[in-house]
Amino acid sequence: MIRAVFYDGLQMPPRGKIQVSARPSAVEASLAVLAAHPTRIQAFIYLSEREASPSEIAEALGEKTNYVNNHVKKLEEIGAIELVDELVVGNRVKKIYRAVETGFSGTEEFEKMSKPQREVVTMSILRFILADFSAAVGARIFDSRPDRSLLRYPDQVDDQGFREISELHDDTFFKTREIVARAANRIAKDPNSAIPFTATTMLYERSVLKSLRSPLTES
Description:
The chain is mainly α. It has two domains: 1-146, Arc Repressor Mutant, subunit A, CATH 1.10.10.10; 149-219, no CATH class. 48% of the residues lie in helices and 8% in strands. Helix 3 crosses helix 5, helix 3 crosses helix 7 and helix 4 packs across helix 5 (65-77). The two termini are 30 Å apart. The relative contact order is 0.15.
């Protein structure tokens, strides 16, 4: 079973394997800080796709370097990005950053992790989900397709039911990859047919107010 995975469209983690890079600072990162400004979101997405300096990001976004640099510093402060290199260019130092990516798959490895370690992975992936969603809504393209999917289904199951739904989410992920692979062959023949997308799946135990719990759940 998959327990969490960050997939950037470039490298596919195989079933049952694990890639973990736990960074305690990521647990303390604030999603609200990331979503506080469109430029900050765009800079984060840019750095999730490539390594770059603030000046390169500014050029891509059509903004002033000092303005973008302030947002880059804030992203670094909350642990969303990291410094990967410093290049001497003339009489100044060019700092190169990239987004912090923490992802893994595998039940056995996941169960060996502490709750703080799991929270690190969760926070890292949620940053990307929030950035993608905010950017799509901000650009008014989230609802551009009538077949887009947005589902929320709160209910209750027993332990076996939860595991069965978890396996269903796993199957959806791998079937999505199979669909993408088939589409890649068609896109190769017609590059203009490519549609960028983000697919997100979540399953978690939700918080329920005690006053709303049924007598059955209290026993």
